[in-house]
Amino acid sequence: MTTASDRRDRVVLLNPGPVNVHDRVRAAIASPDECHREPEAQELLVSVAGKIAEVCGGADSHTAVLLTGSGTAALEAVVSSVVPADGRLLVLDNGHYGERLLRIARVHGIDVDHLEFGWANPIPIAAVDRFLGENPGVTHIGVVHHETSTGMLNPLRELGAVVARHGRSLIVDAISSLGSEELDVVADHVDWCVGTANKCLEGLPGISFVCAPRERFAALEPLPARTFYFDLFANYRAQVLDRSPQFTPALQVLRALDTALDLTLEEGVAARARRYADRAQEIREGLERRGIELLLPPHQRAASLTNAYLSGLTYDELHDGLKERGYVIYATQAKSAGVFRLANMGQLTAADIAGFFAAFDDVLSKHETEKEEW
What we know:
The chain is α/β, with parallel strands linked by helices. The protein is built from twelve helices and 14 strands.
């Protein structure tokens, strides 16, 4: 059988989602046409929700609500649905996606406090502990687990323990961590875990989800909805209680996610983390051998992304040269200008990384030659 990595037309995606997927996932999206109100589709919803809860560590106590949309859709559903009118959200921000949490809250008129620590700076647990002690009006805390704007992995277990000790509710953007990083919604005291199909779960883009204890979903019933499509309780009631989607989901993408979750559970999150760590090590060693400086110290880096400083050419020159050779890299946001990103999510092999560096060296060599000719 020809695998994805053997195909000559394959582009190697080194961006942090969408990712290169397994052939079984790609085949699943070609499932037959079907109606979303039929029993088969309803069984699919239940199946996927159960597998998500298992990956999150909450198989016995949790369920998931699925939304057709990117990870931001599920994140907006949580923020807009779970903080009551008399509640207050504390956003912990050390990158672009921490800022996104803040912006969502403000769009919906939610009272919000903002602890900004600066891009690429770790979140100090003691500062969060102190703030919660001094601000009893804060009911919910929002944090990004893997802040991909910098590659920072934030200390979820320590944060969860602090939030639980203060009796508050923790919202976690696990969009770029779930499936590869250590995360257990029970052990980490995560009340609302947000994820997406097309990153470390190695599915296809178009489905995102919220995983939470069933009683947390049920407790949303009396809260007035701030949105229509993103009303989390309405979607929970339809999908989990009535076993039918509230709106038409992207069924074929959902079938691909079902297969991707099977593959995740077959491999195991810990084994996937080791696979990703191996690819990340190959990337980081290859960059360092070429004298390229990495953004973060080793103990702060996630296993699926490396941010590095540009050297000798612009991002566009590097990106375009690599894309011509079949490799896609990623820019970063304005506050990290001069940095590019290499993700190793998805079905990447050691041969893919070796091929990337051959292309990388070729781009640099060509650039140096052209400079000399000028």
